[in-house]
Amino acid sequence: MMSVNEFKQRLEKKGNLLSIFITSLIIAILLFTVPAQAFTMGTPVVQASGVSFVTIRIPFTKVTDEVIDYNNVSAILYASGITPVTGTLLSCTTNGTSDYSYGYDVFGYGYGYDYGTLSYGYNEEGGYGYSYGYGYLRDVSGTFDCTFNFTGLPAGTYSNAQVAGYINGVLIDTKTVDSAFTVLPISGDPTINWVSVAEQDIFYSFVSGNNVINLRVNATNVTTTDWVTANFSGLKAGLSCDSNPANGTFNLTYNVSLKLYVGACDVTAEAVSSDFAGAQVPVTIYKSSDPTKTAVGSKILVLYNMTTPPSDPTGCHAFGSGTINMSTVTDFGSVNLVLYHQLNGNSTCDPNNELPGDGLRNVMMWNFTSVNMSTYEQAQRMSTLRTAIQVNITGPGKYGNSRIYVNVSAFTALGTATKIAMYNLPFQTAPNIVADNSSNAVTSIVWASNGYDSTFGMWTGNLSFTVSNFSGYNITDNMTPLVTFVSPVQGATVNDTTPNINITINGTGTTVSAVYMFINSMLNATYYSNGTTSSGFQCANVSTGSEAIFCNYTVTSDLGNSTTPKNLSVIAYDYGTTAPGNKQVSWINFTVLPPGYMLLNTTTTVNSAQTEVVVTSDSGAASVTVPSGINATLNLSGVQNNTAYVNATLTNALNVSTQASVNVSIQFPAGLVINSSPSWTGDINLPQVMGSAAVTPATPSGYTLSGVEAIELGFGNVTLNFSKGVRVLFTGKAGKSLGYSRNGVFTAVSTTCANDSQVAGDALSAGGDCKIDVGSDLVMWTKHFTEFVTYTLTAPITGGTPSVPTGGGTNATTTTIPVTSTTTGRTTSTTIRGTTTTAEVTLGEATAKIKEAETLLADAKAANLDTSTAEALLAEAKSLANAGKYREALAKAIEAINNLKSLMAGVPSPSPEAGAIAGMDTVMWLIVIVAVLFILAGYYLVSQKKPRHRR
Sign of the C-alpha dihedral, residues 376, 377, 380, 383? Predict the structure, then answer.
């Protein structure tokens, strides 16, 4: 460390002027920021009165951090009729949590720890080798108590005496002593006021730290020449403490500083053979001036040799390794009683084979927190601890609860907060903990599985938890088993009429004891854990020793007699609680397809043996192919409304194609709702070629009817209406006429679709339809199904130009529309030719201009321009486009674009100068920050530079 002279030389250096300034500043801050006296004084308490002196304890309550040297704590006693008496400090101790102190010096700081006694300290570290620091006592919880002896008090009784307390010479407070006290003259008969020990309890063992009795006697009217003797013969015959081993006595000596008679006795040898032997130890005072004048007092003391509580002599119960060593306990008023309870699983101790294995093994750990056994009676009961604690572990495959119980009425000290750990419990998952007294809270529950235990033949685990107050607790499985249907699942549809059933049953704590399986309320299979099981019902643990079992069973009776859902019910029991254990009833409904039915798959092809395609709620998007010569049906009963049966919903898209003389393809869109009447069974006949039409299409006068081809699509004359358009494509039938018949009435489909799209199909009115040629094919969009007919009408030849009804027509017109280029900004003219009903402007052209207008509109709004006119024009353009008036829509969109461009022409571009100025601001701040960093770094280098030494 640098000397003071070297430090001063450094301070004289020119480069260290700043250091001098900083040093002075820090010292000044430390001196002027030392906390002010921050104490109050509690009521002084008289501890004992003695020969011409009284002992008074003064509690000081700390409020904030303070610099304290307990040697600078003083007190003065004031009483009526006497000169104030200055007290002699005996000791100061904290009464609360542990404290710690820290100190600051000029160039560093350090920490020091203090437990119990207040002290003052400073450190010697840091900086340039010169330190000056203050020690602070922090975090004192409660009070710190200082005890003073006030000597030289005249004999007499003192009431309303006052004590003034000082810290570092500063008056803290003045308080009245809590009660009157009497100082007796020496000339009276000797009196023993009290007998105590310096230790925290009255129990002594043979273990170092707990083997010496430090006796304390407070007496009056005695002198240092009088005899004070303690007799241990009642506690232990011949107990040797000093030169008088024969009679078990020893003499106490007067301690001037304590103003007490004291004596110490080592009882190591005697405690080894004492099992909580206790007795009154008398203390006698003999006056040296007159031995006939005596005084007698006493103190109960106990010797014991218990290391761990005694085990069961039969060998069935014991306290194992880790159990508390009682001989090391120095305070029986607050014992953390840790017990590892062991049980023996042999046939003698466990005739019911609840605990497999021969020999003692840990089943329980108890940690009773802060047990108060400070009374002699409570300590004596330690020998009966084993019978006060009861443990029962229910083994695997047994009904009942595992139980822990403490007879707190017999051992009241154990009625306290307790941490408990139970080992090798026969559960795979965490069991429940149920208290006899529901007000005793159970917290901090932790379950740790041990995996499979070959001794137990099952999974085991360890359970730990904390209880607020002890009584009895059941460790139990009161959760019902969990049944999982692996196959089939709820709502499933299967093709196999003798299906295979797979289920998993989890005992959720304990193992499964029995399983019963029913189909349509008829018992089909049973399983028992003892191995008695129905033929074909095979159950096994999911894993070795698992609480869950997996069961497999093939139904032997034919379930394919109808499509009515079948009910599968399972009743499962476990070994939880009392027999027959916890019960669980679970069930599902599933459908078995009769012969001729097949499930809809992603790609499905109908065959002659299976013509009924069943759609379920689990069916995804799919396609169905119907080969030539097969009439197939789509079965939607599985997706019908379960109450009215008048509608069904196709969640996903479905495409159907036929390969016949009349090839038809059908596209059902996703989300399609099919409405019908209550008579509808849920079937839809897929396209079936009819030999002839049910009703001949109407033929205008003079026309020839030919090429009639009829297909049935739907469910006969039962009306099927759709919430969306369904697309039906007739391959190679472009130019043909189209119609349908229902209930003997033929209706021609004369409406031409706006276009071939789902949008156009969905726009049809309820029950509506339309047609459109797509290449060589005829496409119909329809919202109903029935018998559809394609046919040809040929007009008669009369020698002139035939007049074919077309639904009307108009003359061609030419329209010129101004168009503004988005790149040049110039306006040109676009000529559109067409008729009043069909323009040459397409939907795509109108849509492009509308999108261009929307982009410009967004820019104008961002510039806070008045876009109301443009918005109105754009809205009108969209409305016209939706109505199919593309030419008018295009004109409105162009008008909106021109309006927006004229608005945008007045918006100035961002100023480049503004960006440059903003950039300069950022650069300037960076320069300032870098400059400050360079200055700080330079100062650091200067301060670290070693000084040159003068010769």
Answer: negative
Q: 424: phi > 0 → left, psi -120 to 50 → alpha, else beta; which?
A: left
Q: What is the DSSP string of 788-800?
A: EEEEEEEPPP-SS
Sequence-ordered strand ranges (E) for 225-324: 227-231, 249-255, 260-266, 277-286, 294-303, 317-319
Strand pairing class (73-78; 85-86) = antiparallel
Task: Look up residue 476 and give its two tokens.
Answer: 């139990």
DSSP string, 602-620: SEEE-BTTB-EEEP-TT--
Q: What are phi and psi of 444, to 5 degrees?
A: 50, 45
Burial degree of 469 (CB within 10 A; 0-12, 13-18, 19+): middle
Q: Exposure string (b/e) for 517-544, b if CB count within 10 Å is 16 or more?
A: bbbeeeebbebebeeebbeebebebeee
Nearest to 546 by CA among 518, 596, 496, 507: 507
Q: 303, 279 in Cβ contact below 8 A?
A: no
Quick one: three-class SS letters along 729-754? EECCCCCCEEEEEECCEEEECCCECC
> In a 10 Å sphere around its CB, with 0-12 CB exposed, 13-18 middle and 19+ buried, how is residue 12 labelled?
exposed
Q: Are 770 and 781 in contact (CB under 8 A)?
A: yes
User: Which residue, among 438, 302, 433, has the nearest Cα to 373 in the 3D structure?
Assistant: 302
Q: Given a cut of 60, is residue 687 above it in pLDDT?
A: yes
Burial class of 453 by CB neighbour count within 10 A (0 to 12, 13 to 18, 19+): middle
Closest CA relative to residue 251, chosen from 345, 821, 243: 243
CA angle 169/173/177 to nearest 5° reads 120
Paired sense of beta strands 583-592 and 603-605, if any: unpaired
DSSP secondary-structure letter at 480?
Answer: P
Of 325, 338, 327, the C-alpha closest to 210 is 327
* Chain-centre distance for alpha carbon 85: 65
- Cα separation of 942 and 309, whole Å? 71
Beta-bridge partner residues of 718: 715
CA pseudo-torsion sign 793, 795, 801, 805: negative
- 354 pLDDT band, cuts 50/70/90, is low
- Residue type present at position 904: M
Phi and psi torsions of 934, nearest 5°: -65, -40
Residue 72, amino acid: N
**Residue 332: CA count within 13 A, CB half-sphere:** 25
Mean pLDDT confidence for 136-163: 74
Contact between 782 and 728 under an 8 Å Cβ cutoff? The reply is yes
By residue count, the chain amounts to 951
CB atoms within 10 A of CB 945: 10
Q: What is the pLDDT of residues 719-778, one digit of tens each?
A: 899 999 999 999 999 999 999 988 888 899 989 999 999 999 999 999 999 999 999 999
pLDDT digits (tens, 9 = 90+) for 866-886: 888 888 888 888 888 777 677
For 215-233, what is the mean pLDDT?
A: 83
**Across all residues in the chain, what is the average pLDDT?**
77
Tokens of 45: 């308490």
pTM, entire model:
0.45
At 187, is the secondary structure helix, strand, or coil?
coil
Share of the chain above pLDDT 90, in %: 21
